[in-house]
Design brief:
Elements: H1 2-14, H2 23-34, H3 36-53, H4 55-58, H5 90-126, H6 128-142, H7 146-157, H8 161-188, H9 191-198, H10 203-239, H11 251-261, H12 268-295
Length: 302
């Protein structure tokens, strides 16, 4: 009896050690070790999130607090980044602008990710006429210039936080549904999908239990890289007056109103919002590239 069980004991001893931490912690550890630019991008994102969440405690003034006696101050101890034409603190407005940008960005990406996942998986799973009809609708949407289409929709709905979040989320979801569809098409052909069908699993169960978990890494990468695009698009719409209405500060609105009107008299009114927007786009792009290299199985060998 002891001789018969010896090979099994040896096999158990040679097995890899059990996972002691969740997979997402492993991803962050690998990010720190192998992707310095991705780690830098993640640090920028964390700082932005902390500033947006704690804006009331970090900022020394209110975002609409004015002081006509302190107009166009370049920099001093009371106003580190200066003041605008109404005496409002630029640093405070940048911090609150980060809250608006991240609120719209994360909200739109969440809506878009759910929409892209639903469209992509259903289109790839059912195929045939369903896939053809869905993809022709995606083609019709993508045939229009994105910014022009968003401007037209926002001019009809009116500027507000909810409207711009939903519109950007729908645009993000329809555009990225093809990425999810391409991954789902490859997963659909695996043998375990046929085995699940043979065992009597329904369409919803197969899509939720077998296809969706394998598509999640792609969704995470698409969502992370798409955040920078959504934030930049929101700033563009706010620059054109179709974003979040005043008095709420946005980086695009700061560039459009005070930045353009007083560019030569007070150049810092345009410089600091542009720097904040550039850092946000850089941070999300680097973080998305690092996650793509770690989560995409086609790039793990590189």
């Amino acid at each position: 009896m002891s001789i018969a069980t010896a090979p099994a004991d040896v096999a158990l001893a040679r097995r890899a050690p059990a996972r002691t931490r969740p997979w997402y912690l492993d991803v962050w550890v690998q990010m720190v070790r192998r992707k310095p630019l991705g780690t830098m991008g993640g640090a920028i994102v964390v700082v932005m999130l902390a500033a947006a969440v704690g804006a009331e405690w970090i900022s020394p003034y209110g975002f609409s607090q004015t002081s006509l006696l302190e107009r166009f101050i370049a920099m001093n101890r009371s106003h580190w980044l200066g003041t605008d034409q109404l005496g409002r603190d630029v640093l405070t407005r940048l911090i609150y602008g980060a809250r608006i940008s991240l609120y719209v960005g994360f909200g739109a990406v969440l809506v878009g990710s759910v929409l892209a996942t639903t469209i992509g998986i259903l289109s790839a799973y059912f195929g045939g006429r369903v896939d053809m009809l869905v993809q022709r609708g995606v083609d019709a949407w993508m045939a229009f210039p994105p910014l022009l289409l968003l401007m037209s929709i926002m001019s009809l709905l009116g500027p507000s936080v909810w409207n711009i979040t939903i519109v950007l989320g729908v645009a993000f979801g329809i555009q990225n549904s093809r990425v999810v569809r391409g991954v789902a098409l490859g997963i659909k052909e695996h043998t375990y999908i046929e085995s699940a069908r043979a065992m009597g699993s329904g369409h919803l169960a197969i899509a939720a239990r077998h296809i969706l978990p394998n598509v999640m890494p792609t969704i995470i990468v698409v969502a992370t890289t798409g955040l920078s695009t959504v934030i930049l698009t929101e700033a563009s719409l706010s620059f054109l007056g179709l974003g979040v209405p005043p008095p709420y500060p946005t980086w695009g609105g700061m560039l459009s109103l005070a930045g353009l009107d007083h560019m030569y008299q007070a150049p810092w009114l345009a410089i600091w919002p542009a720097v904040a927007l550039s850092l946000a786009v850089f941070g999300f792009n680097m973080l998305g590239d690092g996650l793509r290299d770690l989560l995409d199985p086609r790039l793990k060998g590189g």
